[in-house]
Amino acid sequence: MTNVRLLKKSQKDTTGLTTENRELKLRLQGMEQQAQLREALNETLREEVQRLKKVTGQLPSANGNPYDIVIQQSIPNYYSHSSNQAQHLHATEAQESSNDKSPSGQCLDDPMDFM
């Protein structure tokens, strides 16, 4: 081979290698971006799992009591249940007191009747 041919072949190889190098760099950039996106997604998912565990009572809340959420959720139910019982009791008492009145309208079971 002559020097001119060797030079042309070498230039062709260099051009091919430069093009391949550019393509590989672009692929590497794409892979790095995918890795960053995957890491961000994983972090977001980890945070969501922690939030859900806290909501479902699988993790201690800020004050360290793992049952804090359960207690907070059951308190309103208890009071609403108690309130319903109290309303029912008052309604029952009102009905009974109207049944216990004398024809003059006075309540017969009133503890202040002795006066």
TrEMBL record:
Residues 1-22, 81-115 are annotated as: Disordered. Keywords: Coiled coil. Signal peptide: none annotated. The keyword rRNA processing does not apply. GO terms for cellular component: nucleus. GO terms for molecular function: DNA-binding transcription factor activity. Residues 94-105 have a biased composition (Polar residues). It comes from the Eukaryota. Residues 28-58 form a coiled coil. This is Uncharacterized protein.
